[in-house]
């Protein structure tokens, strides 16, 4: 279809019309969390007002409606990402999803002598669970190094896939550098060596068309709040053979078929990993978010954000003393930068007074910042609902702030 009218699209997001410190809000922190269109807020509101009940257990009308809404969201997500609904475990987000792989897949399998290969550019959510597994199994965590551009050298990466490597944990898109990794080629290489692959899709699913089946990984994790959905939602996609072999991570209601004190029979499929009452309204919201994104068209979203990235990069490069981290040829609309002589937190604090929201700090990626030898950065991250005028306003604010701090 034709590209959306982006000014109209922006008007779908109520929060974007507010002011901060008397200035129009310029929200450039979507890599941290995304804003929500009215369609998502309204879907959750309507669900609570009209259809709310618990899922699965009740045969009454509301129970049936709630179950259909929850399972409908699973089906919507599965179609969106080209996977089977019965391979999609709904959970609270990427952090839960990666810990589920760590505790249910890796912990029972890995042992001393095994290696978990983790990329340099991972978010802590894709590092710490592997360190916990390593501590308990005697396996070790090894780093897959990056180039100064913030990419992987394919030969070096291939060489790091030694026979002791049992699992590779890699992000699809870096939350600090914006690098889009060629996960399809990387997973093919890993799988050909018998290495199980875990892809962190947190920063990919909200910003580009993602076809998990085409990537060919073993596990793919993502989080709802960065893709127009509510907090506390996300999912783990896993190959069916893995799900079938994995013991449950949490026990409780919803995940069982039969319980007696002699033993318990678990549900098949993803429900085995969904103990307890889930975030039902949250997944109704996430389903609405997917409908909304599909209405825009992910290819249009990707193109829109590529234009914003080019503008933002150009605008920042034109300012004296600005250094941008990473220069991958394929990037999402994320720019981490430093300004000579200014602390990242001071920059972000003063930018906020101009109405501009950027994140400062280490972005849950200490090892990556250590690689670049920097203590903290500012990160500006755009989404399709941002405008080119906002990029100009951000650049003007940064020039002003830089003069104040110099
Ligand atoms: N991985 C990446 C690449 C991320 O950007 C984030 C969120 N900052 C996470 C994992 C963690 O996501 P969540 O906090 O929603 O579990």
From TrEMBL:
It is an enzyme of class 2 (transferase). InterPro entries: Aminotrans_V_dom, Aminotrans_V_PyrdxlP_BS, Cys_dSase_SufS, PyrdxlP-dep_Trfase, PyrdxlP-dep_Trfase_major, PyrdxlP-dep_Trfase_small. It comes from the Bacteria. GO terms for molecular function: cysteine desulfurase activity. Its EC number is 2.8.1.7. PROSITE patterns: AA_TRANSFER_CLASS_5. Pfam families: Aminotran_5. It catalyses: (sulfur carrier)-H + L-cysteine = (sulfur carrier)-SH + L-alanine. Residues 26-394 form the Aminotransferase class V domain. Keywords: Pyridoxal phosphate, Transferase. Its cofactor is pyridoxal 5'-phosphate. SUPFAM superfamilies: PLP-dependent transferases. Belongs to the class-V pyridoxal-phosphate-dependent aminotransferase family. Csd subfamily. Catalyzes the removal of elemental sulfur and selenium atoms from L-cysteine, L-cystine, L-selenocysteine, and L-selenocystine to produce L-alanine. This is Cysteine desulfurase. It comes from Luteimonas rhizosphaericola.
